[in-house]
Amino acid sequence: MKIHIPTPLRQYAEKKAALDVSGKTVAEGLRNLTVQHPDLKKHLFTDEGKLRAFVNVYVNDEDIRYLKNVETAVKDGDDVSIVPSIAGGSCADGGTRSLRSRKTQKLL
Description:
Layout: E1 2-4, E2 18-20, H1 26-36, H2 41-44, E3 55-59, E4 62-63, E5 79-84, H3 99-107
């Protein structure tokens, strides 16, 4: 399988956009990836060995949460994509106004 590495994590994977790894499941592939690139492990897995909540994984564009999660079977030629969740943002005023003041202004 080919695992696609998101830009923020490439610094821990030889700066490569994708790496070929072996494994029969997503879990095996990610485990083999972190054996080859140990610095990735803390970014992908909790101390208990579970995939971090903000890490989304897709096999051939299918979200593994709707398949068999990390036990989803993979084969040679499959594309596995790691997609970190993105949160946050700012408002037009640079975040200086409180949510309450923005709601109040909308009402006026």
